[in-house]
Amino acid sequence: MKQLTLMLVLMSLCPASHGWGKRGHQIIAENAAIIVSSEPDSAFMRAISFDFAYYANVPDIIWKRPVTYDQEKSEHSMDLEIFDRAFAKRPEIKNPLELSRKEFDAKFPEIRAMDGRAFWRIRELYEKLEKYTAALKDFKEDKGKGRQDLQEKWLNIAGPLAHYVA
User: How far apart are alpha carbons 54 and 158 in whole angstroms?
Assistant: First the structure.
């Protein structure tokens, strides 16, 4: 029993035992970009697959700094058992996951932020990504600084979105 306890303590100290790790997010994002790049008009994704994989790690590398750690920590997960119990107590609220984050927090104060808000983080990033995608589709020039700026903004949202989805 002592050996098992010691092994579990040592494993918990190893960064590789926490979630996917940088390599896991990189592999998932890079492979997703390559798979999507086989679709018509998506050569851009193959060209940026490495960058996409890099940006998929931004939430862990950049956003989990001391200043933003408390907020970012709750964005990474959801304890679905806690959500299910709270939803069962409030059957009059249909489709609670369709509520905005603010509405949800007001209607379900017993579900603390530390119980997770990944679903809302994904939805918020997806909504931003839709706007940049539409702007890129509407952009008339194939090349140039304006298009590159939009692509950079798109990548800064799409990469982290891949992180949360993974």
Answer: 11
- Please name the residues in contact with 22: beta carbons below 8 A apart, sequence gap of 6 or more: 57, 60, 61
Q: How far apart are CA 36 and CA 74, in angstroms?
A: 29
Taking the CA atoms of residue 33, residue 38, residue 41 and residue 43 in that order, the dihedral angle to the nearest 10 degrees is 50
pLDDT beyond 80 at 141: no
Q: What is the pLDDT of residues 55-95, one digit of tens each?
A: 998 888 888 888 888 788 889 889 999 999 999 999 999 99
pLDDT digits (tens, 9 = 90+) for 114-132: 999 999 999 999 999 999 9
Note the pTM of the prediction, 2 decimals.
Answer: 0.78
DSSP letter string over 73-141? HHHT-B-HHHHHHHHHH-TTS--GGGS-HHHHHHH-TTS-GGGB-HHHHHHHHHHHHHHHHHHHHH---
CA separation (Å) from 56 to 26, 28, 166? Answer: 7, 9, 9
Residue 69: helix, strand or coil by DSSP? helix
Paired with 90 in beta bridges are none
